[in-house]
């Protein structure tokens, strides 16, 4: 048996199991990776919302990362909820010394509307984390926040992509889930000196979409860890999320999770 690649997720814990570290580890395993984690925050949440957040000391978040890197050769990593400027600073001081691909999901607000990134951490993310990103994966509200503009047209996507690439990311995937469409969902891949590329998939009508962004970025990171080219890794991840949504369910109240066990073809 071939040993799976070691994939690291650096994110918050979701006590409801549908997003964050839990969704990432399920995704990584489903796609034949070995998942490791650095937990940047504990959340008290379920399908109805986030009821509390407890973050570790930044030095302990950094110690988790240092210890993983000392013990395992990491093929790729992804970041999710990082919560504070201090945690971002502590982690990026270490990440900037590494050479593996890094997928940055700039998580700022939960599906239920709870703030997962402090306002004073946004500038630190732009200054210190985004320049390390092999791929930045904002949804529409996150892209609007980072680019400082409203996004509704293809021209807007082109301009927003340019602005985020200008922050140092090697590539930007603007996710299409927050754009209105009853037939297809279009994610837009923005690369330097190129027009944005539309990556379309069938729309899945479901309220069980908790953790879609976490799952997508974890799936892309796992694909990169297997040595796939970026576009191929994104396509595989889109298909994984689409299948997991089509087979999703609601184990409790509120917005249900994806069915990660059903995501792989």
Describe the protein's architecture and organization:
- The chain is of the alpha/beta class and 265 residues long.
- It has one domain (6-262): UDP-N-acetylmuramoyl-L-alanine:D-glutamate ligase (3-Layer(aba) Sandwich), CATH 3.40.1190.20.
- It is built from 8 helices and 9 strands.
- It has helices at 20-30, 58-71, 85-95, 122-129, 140-147, 154-165, 212-225, 230-246; strands at residues 6-14, 34-46, 49-54, 76-79, 102-104, 135-136, 172-174, 184-190, 197-202.
- The strands form 2 sheets. It has a 6-stranded mixed β-sheet. Strands 7-8-9 form a 3-stranded antiparallel β-sheet.
- Helix 1 packs across helix 7 (212-225).
- The radius of gyration is 17 Å and the shape is globular.
- It starts with 5 loop residues before the first strand and ends in a 19-residue tail after the last helix.
- 49% of the residues are buried.
- The mean pLDDT is 93.
Shape: globular
User: How many alpha or pi helices?
Assistant: 8
Proportion of residues in β-strands: 15-25%
Reported for the largest beta sheet, the result is: 6 strands, mixed
The span between the termini is 20 Å
Helix content: 25-40%
Overall number of domains: 1
CATH superfamily: Ribokinase
Write down the Rg. 17 Å
CATH topology (fold) name? UDP-N-acetylmuramoyl-L-alanine:D-glutamate ligase
CATH architecture: 3-Layer(aba) Sandwich
Averaged pLDDT: 93
CATH hierarchy class name: Alpha Beta
Strand order of the largest sheet: 3-2-1-4-5-6
**Helix and strand succession?**
EHEEHEHEHEHHEEEHH
Low-confidence segments: none
Structural class: alpha/beta
Query: How many β-strands, per DSSP?
Result: 9
